[in-house]
């Protein structure tokens, strides 16, 4: 999905229902009220990397603002794992966490799983080449496609898991590893853009786990899932990983704008002006 980005794109991280911070970030980035929505005086647009909903205080307000921005052409928006799970529940005819989501579902289902502009790519968790290939013709408003993602044996299910939740490996049983929320984990998300062959868990894991394990390595068959991101490719903008403040958000051609707004009370964005090599000086945050 190729889109124009000639005026610049401001990539905003996972919002998770934090409407006040969303509006604060729009103001900080220079967007101005325009009727019932916002536009930028220089024609810039925003890109939301998914996970607009859940966890925070006002998912409905976030959805309303995002939809208006999208409908007036100011926002590009991709699906996160939280939105896709909502779609799956609706297709499976299971109750939603908030019945008010029903009002936004037809619009949410028009959003893409990933996108590409003339200068960047964006996906919620991992630009995994073979998974992107599987999903390139898929639409979230196609019930038959969504139904296939509910079947554990389908290529579509695995591809959606890869791009929306990241490439995962089983973690060691001893020691038990915990995430930044102190929850024990059986699997961890890896640096999908790097060659991880022979690397330790401490070197492979993107979302940090504690304690760091330098002597053990993941199962080579699981690491074989990784398809390192090619040199000379466009930069990729992600959300999803709830990065603690100590972890860099710009790594080679990869930019993660998710610093976990719910835990850290800080929202992140990246001002992209068409540059081929992302730089941390273009990061913006608000609290």
Describe the secondary structure blueprint for this structure:
Elements: E1 2-3, E2 9-12, H1 19-28, E3 32-34, E4 37-39, E5 45-48, H2 59-71, E6 75-77, H3 81-91, H4 105-108, E7 114-117, E8 121-123, H5 129-135, H6 143-148, H7 155-165, E9 168-170, E10 177-178, E11 184-185, E12 187-189, H8 201-204, H9 220-223, E13 236-238, E14 250-251, E15 254-256, H10 261-264, E16 267-272, E17 283-286
Parallel strand pairs: 1-7, 2-5, 5-6, 8-13, 13-15
Antiparallel strand pairs: 2-16, 3-4, 7-8, 9-12, 10-11, 14-15, 16-17
Structural summary, described in words:
The protein has 287 residues and is an alpha/beta fold. It has two domains: 2-165 and 234-286, Purple Acid Phosphatase, chain A, domain 2, CATH 3.60.21.10; 168-225, no CATH class. The protein is built from ten helices and 17 strands. It has helices spanning 19-28, 59-71, 81-91, 105-108, 129-135, 143-148, 155-165, 201-204, 220-223, 261-264, and strands spanning 2-3, 9-12, 32-34, 37-39, 45-48, 75-77, 114-117, 121-123, 168-170, 177-178, 184-185, 187-189, 236-238, 250-251, 254-256, 267-272, 283-286. A six-stranded mixed β-sheet has the order 1-7-8-13-15-14, with no helix packed on it. Helix 5 (129-135) crosses helix 7. The longest helix has 13 residues, at 59-71. The radius of gyration is 18 Å and the shape is globular. It starts with a strand and ends with a strand.
């Amino acid at each position: 999905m190729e889109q124009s980005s000639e005026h610049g794109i401001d990539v905003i991280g996972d919002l998770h229902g934090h409407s006040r911070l969303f509006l604060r970030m729009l103001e900080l980035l220079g967007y101005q009220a325009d009727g019932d929505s916002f536009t930028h005086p220089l024609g810039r647009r925003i890109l939301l990397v998914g996970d607009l909903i859940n966890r925070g205080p006002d998912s409905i307000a976030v959805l309303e603002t995002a939809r208006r921005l999208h409908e007036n052409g100011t926002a590009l928006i991709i699906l996160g794992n939280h939105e896709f799970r909502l779609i799956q529940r609706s297709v499976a005819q299971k109750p939603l966490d908030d019945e008010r989501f029903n009002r936004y579902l037809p619009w949410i289902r028009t959003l893409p799983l990933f996108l590409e502009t003339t200068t960047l790519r964006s996906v919620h968790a991992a630009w995994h080449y073979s998974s992107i290939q599987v999903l390139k013709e898929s639409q979230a408003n196609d019930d038959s496609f969504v139904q296939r993602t509910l079947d554990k044996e389908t290529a579509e299910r695995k591809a959606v898991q890869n791009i929306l939740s990241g490439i995962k490996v089983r973690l060691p049983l001893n020691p038990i590893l915990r995430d930044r929320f102190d929850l024990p984990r059986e699997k961890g998300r890896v640096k999908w853009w790097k060659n991880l062959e022979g690397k330790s868990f401490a070197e492979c894991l993107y979302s940090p786990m504690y304690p760091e394990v330098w002597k053990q390595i993941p199962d080579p068959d699981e690491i074989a899932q990784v398809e390192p991101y090619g040199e000379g490719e466009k930069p990729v903008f992600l959300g999803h990983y709830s990065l603690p403040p100590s972890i860099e958000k710009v790594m080679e051609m990869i930019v993660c704008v998710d610093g976990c707004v719910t835990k850290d009370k800080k929202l992140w964005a990246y001002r992209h002006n068409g540059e081929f090599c992302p730089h941390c000086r273009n990061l913006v945050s608000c609290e």
